[in-house]
Amino acid sequence: MTPHLTSPQTSVAPVSVGLIGLGAMGMGMATSLRRAGYLVHAYDLRPGVAAEFASQGGVACSSLQELGEACSVVVSVVLNAAQVEAVLHGAGDSAQGSRGVLAAMRPGATFVMCSTVDPARSIAFESQAQARGVHYVDAPISGGAVRAAKGELTIMSSASAQAYEAAGPVLDAMAAKVYRLGDRAGMGSKVKIINQLLAGVHIAAAAEAMALGLREGVDANALYEVITHSAGNSWMFENRMAHVLAGDYTPLSAVDIFVKDLGLVLDTARASKFPLPLSATAHQMFMQASSAGYAHEDDSAVIKIFPGIKLPRGSAD
């Protein structure tokens, strides 16, 4: 199917939208939805985070059920497939409640799944939603926290026409580009996994290049200036090596995100016996960084696996 790119819309229907997961991306997305004129209900396992959002004009929900009952479109921005499962069906503890959001959503409502997951899991989530009369949008995201706050994400989506009719304006409010890649779940997640292949390999390559420069005594700032104005540059080099120069490994996207995402890349390729040598090497680099104690640092901390280099001041070393 030829990808269809929607254009941002300037007006929205008076719809209550729920957003689950107020992390670095989710908070920005919730703010973008509010700015677009939606009444946004929010739920996060950390009650203080939802309360902070409510103080800015949103609505804090104390449970997934409360959010599901109030909203015709629910956007989930959690870490992985296991967390999506808990959002949909509940974790059975006091934090998540005895039911997930799916049981509380009205027939005809729409669930938007924004996590990076195995495409087969997204297809299964769609079947579970449809069994309850709920539309489903496979809608993984890219762009980072800054673009999320500006409503300028890229969304790689696939869904039925009915799901797009209900959720299309909501997607447009969060994104600069919404790609419609298929009429059922799965294709959006496949494209996101390919994007993560490139993102992970580019970060690993950027770290390797900067590490070699440091080992050879090249001034790190001069190297950054030259590469970002030369053919060897990439968006990931320009963005992530700025973190290294600042010695700031505050996690905007953590090392363990790419342990997970490149693992999904390799799992997808393994199922069809397709070789991915660069992805496998990059995955091992992130695994090494994670096992060395950098799992929850910014993914640029993968540079710390290289021996014999002196990182710019301010690093966690």
Describe the 3D structure.
The protein is α/β, with parallel strands linked by helices and 317 residues long. The protein has two domains: 4-185, NAD(P)-binding Rossmann-like Domain (Rossmann fold), CATH 3.40.50.720; 191-305, Orthogonal Bundle (N-(1-d-carboxylethyl)-l-norvaline Dehydrogenase, domain 2). The chain contains twelve helices and ten strands. The chain has helices at 24-35, 47-55, 64-70, 81-89, 119-131, 144-150, 161-174, 187-215, 220-227, 235-246, 255-271, 277-294, and strands at 4-6, 16-20, 39-43, 59-60, 73-76, 110-113, 135-138, 141-142, 153-159, 175-180. Strands 1, 2, 3, 4, 5, 6, 7, 8, 9 and 10 form a ten-stranded mixed beta sheet that branches. Strand 3 (39-43), helix 2 (47-55) and strand 4 (59-60) form a beta-alpha-beta unit. Helix 8 (187-215) packs across helix 11 (255-271) and helix 11 packs antiparallel against helix 12. The chain is globular. The chain starts with a strand and ends in a 23-residue tail after the last helix. Residues 7-13 and 93-97 have low confidence and may be disordered.
